[in-house]
Amino acid sequence: MTNAIGLKIKAIAANIRATREKKNYTQEYLAYKLNISQNAYSKIELGYTKITLERLFQIADILEIDAVSLINLH
After folding, report:
1. Which are the contacts of 32, defined by CB distance < 8 A and separation ≥ 6?
2. HSE (side-chain half, CA atoms, 13 Å) at 56
3. What positions does the domain HTH cro/C1-type occupy (predicted)?
4. Distance between CA atoms of residues 50 and 9, nearest Å
């Protein structure tokens, strides 16, 4: 993976975290809704876990936001 792609992944992970925090949702809540452990969810937000498009859409649905908003790099 190139450094540029790695930075984009980290930015998307940061968008997911920021959106979750704005909604006052806990990592535990998102993990429960995704049927994964809190530790596994934490790795998504840290950018350690590569997520599928399906998982991205699931997260967006839980956060009640358009998936494009999560991948929009400002």
Report:
1. none
2. 17
3. 16-70
4. 8
How confident is the model over 47-60, as pLDDT tens digits? 999 899 999 999 99
Phi and psi dihedrals of 52, rounded to 5? -80, 165
Q: Residue 49's closest CA among 3, 9, 5?
A: 9
Q: How many helical (H) and strand (E) elements, i.e. helices and strands, does the chain have?
A: 5, 0
To the question of pTM greater than 0.85 for the whole model, the response is: yes
At 73, the pLDDT band (50, 70, 90 cuts) reads confident
Q: 16-68, which class in CATH?
A: mainly alpha
Closest CA to 16 of 37, 66, 39: 66
Q: What are the structure tokens assigned to 20, written together? A: 């979750």
